[in-house]
Amino acid sequence: MIEARDTGAPETGRPAGGRDFWPEDDSKPGGRRKKKRSPKLLWGAVAGAVAVVAAAAAGVVVLTGGDDEEGAATGLSNGPGVLPTAYTPQMADRQMARIAQRSADQRPMTQGEVFSGETKTVTYQNYSFTLAGAQLSGDCKSVTWGQRLHDDLAKAGCSQIARGTYVSQDRKYVGQFAAINLASQEGADQIVRVMDPATKAGFVLPLVAPGAPKFGGGFSAAYAQAYGHYTIVTWVQRAGGARPASLNEMIDISLAVEKPADFVWGRLPDEGNGR
């Protein structure tokens, strides 16, 4: 697996508004479509694949201007202070109650588990992405920025963050995936809340892989959801940061890039025997 390093990103401008920008096929502006999931048979503990449906994210999208004047004044807008322009949060659902506590899922994540062979190439509809770089860190502070976020990660018992960079086969799109291992679902929900760009509390640092287009400058959209005691972040943009014609474009891209989140389903204890 290619190891990658952190880097900054250029400044971005504030996008213009427009009602036609919102997804035309969702009940709420910025809501993401529901996506079918299948549990992964990673350790043979799961007897068979059972189709399940999980909301990738729903509710409210927060539109920001990307890097703002305050960020530029502090030097954050051209580096660790990169924030998504659009942000959609979702708290954990009842399906994840069995791993609401890390005490029920004590085995640490591994890079090979999250970014398995099945997630080296990910697709959704007409979009196809290849994993360009991946990294697993046991130092949550080193792969995120923002003092308030750092404080909340520490309070929530963050032990690991796995990150991956995806590039579309036509190199027109770039995506970031992150899985954050926390002590409880309550902590995972809090991290989803505190990463809202409106708080300016901080965010996950983009992982830059060799040869991948730069990520972070211009327009980007992030979707964060608590999966039991994990927070999953999918962050996508057009290469170069151009604003898409519709947020639907970003939604569809994100549904490809979030594929590594399937590892969580393999960690659900079997309901029949409580394992």
Automatic annotation (TrEMBL):
| Region Disordered: start-end pairs | 1-38
Q: Where are the transmembrane segments?
A: 41-63
- Keywords on this record? Membrane, Transmembrane, Transmembrane helix
The answer, when asked if Transmembrane helix is one of the entry's keywords, is: yes
Q: What is this protein called?
A: Uncharacterized protein
